[in-house]
Amino acid sequence: MFQASRFFSISQTIQLSVPKLYSIQIRPLNTNTAIRQEFLKSARIMSDQAFDRAQFEQLLQRRFFVAPSFQIYGGVAGLYDLGPPGCALQAEVLSQWRQHFIIAENMLEIDCVSLTPHVVLQTSGHVERFCDAMVKDAKSGTYYRADHLIEATIPNETAILNKLEDMTLDEMDSVIKNFKIKAPDTGNDLEHPQFFNLMFPTTVGPTTQTKSFLRPETAQGHFVNFKKLLEFNNSRIPFASAQIGKAFRNEISPRAGLLRVREFLMAEVEHYVDPLDKSHPRVGEVEHEILTVWTKDDQESGNGKEFRRISIREALDKKLFNSETMAYFLARIQQFLVKVGIDHKKLVFRQHKSNELSHYACDCWDAEVKTSHGWIEIVGCADRSAYDLTRHQEATGQKLVVQQTLETPVEKEVLKLEINKKQFGPRFRKDAKEVEKLLTAMDQSELAKRQKELDSQGSITLAEKFTVDKDIVGIKTVKVVEHVREFVPNVIEPSFGIGRIIYALLENVYFVRAGAEQRGVLAFPPAVAPIKCLIVPLSGNAEFAPFVRDLSIKMRALGISSRVDDSSSSIGRRYARNDELGTPFGITVDFQTVKDSTVTLRERDTTKQIREPIDKILTIISDLVNSRSTWDKVLETCTPFEQQDV
Fold first, then answer.
1. On the CB side of 154, how many CA atoms lie within 13 Å of its CA?
2. What whole-number distance in Å separates Cα of residue 292 and Cα of residue 570?
3. pTM assigned to the model
4. How does pLDDT run across 350-363, given as a tens digit for each residue?
5. Which of 34, 382, 530, 539 suits a disulfide with 85, CB 3.0-4.6 Å?
């Protein structure tokens, strides 16, 4: 899914190196709504604790969750590498996503290539519309994204900002001049805005004749494979396809860490529905789910920025969502985000206003999370109507339709194309096949338009190069009895920015433990923690080694990731290092273990411990990691162990 805003010809694409990049400013949305905190219940995680972003980002890089790509060469803006804990965290989030959507919803998973031919993205509208406006420092040559610069400079000019999405280049230039907006780094004047296409162009093969792009979204792979997917699903809808893969966008000013990058991981769903029936059979399962929403009417009314807390059922009754399927997926999106650790208190679903809808969408809601950067979009859920399939059908002549047998035949009037074959072949000769393909690909709305042209002009023009006279082709109204209904399905698309979800998750779970050392902690839910358990021998005593080895083997057999820290540091310091990695549990092997095969189990957020036999501890950890139990329930059945001070 992408936000398209301006017309832009690919021939105008400007290849730029942007040495100085403007820090993105994201306008905050304010709320007074009190939302129950459903995650991070530890008393140490204080909601009013000041968030130190510099300290947080230093932890992420020091522990190698993430690092700038090619850093030893100075790095490239907007490109990042994931280290071992970052990779493990991403894998766990994707595992939860696959379980929550693909498996639970019986979706059809595909994996399509990143290289996309020019013609595909021209058909989809990306070549013309996938661009942002930028301005240039008249002296230094530094480029800035125009809308972000305007938003950051005049944040209180609501009337202007509400029109920003619809502004032409000249109108943006007027705003910049009227408010005397200068280059933020130098104070220099800015040149007239110009458009910049965000796709990375390339070519396929040595001849450089096959123009292509690195895909800016994964969605088109679904649509061009629709016929095969429909056949695989026994020609029945509704059904959904799903894909996890990389996308690429040549951002003008990629500054904001993982929030604005040039290569990123997406997880997208395309749910195909009957345009006359967008109900969902499982909406009853989520009708009591409470969402925090900010509707387009509330945004456009000027009555402040109040959010609503509303159930799915009430929202449907009030027609806040355009379909049951949209409502169902918004509820499932929230359930997923909370499951992986996004703070429910910081989550809102914002509906796109009319002037910011993408060209393909008739409705769209963004899941936005409050971070230190403001409210950021991490998931978009759009009703793409039949836009993409219709465009690809028109461009290729391939019928991307669903056929349903009608219980009762229907008589109706339709437009029928008739070709005078005797004159058609001799007239068009070698082009006859192409012209016939263009004629037969026309749907009823196109036939109606062409019928008017034939009546008024006596001919029609196809593909801007073929003129067909009415003595060769005719369009007339006929009565038919339909036994089969044929239609292009609509598409509901939940689109997940995995990098943004991970960044929001990292901020949400980060806190600094009270105490003299001010230790940073990442309080991941056990299900997504990169490392589930730390194994710590009390010392380097050789008697501990067999127990440590046995624990590691048994954890691997249970599919639980673990790590051994047998360094000479104190137990407390070793636990603190792994609190920074978000490891939820820690086992200590000590002299008591040698005597009776018991070990202590420490929980990260409360730092409380229990002592039980090894096999029981392994069962407890397995239940905790697989969400079959909670630490509170464990403490109800096991006596806290307080002898060892960590």
1. 19
2. 45
3. 0.83
4. 999 887 777 777 89
5. 530
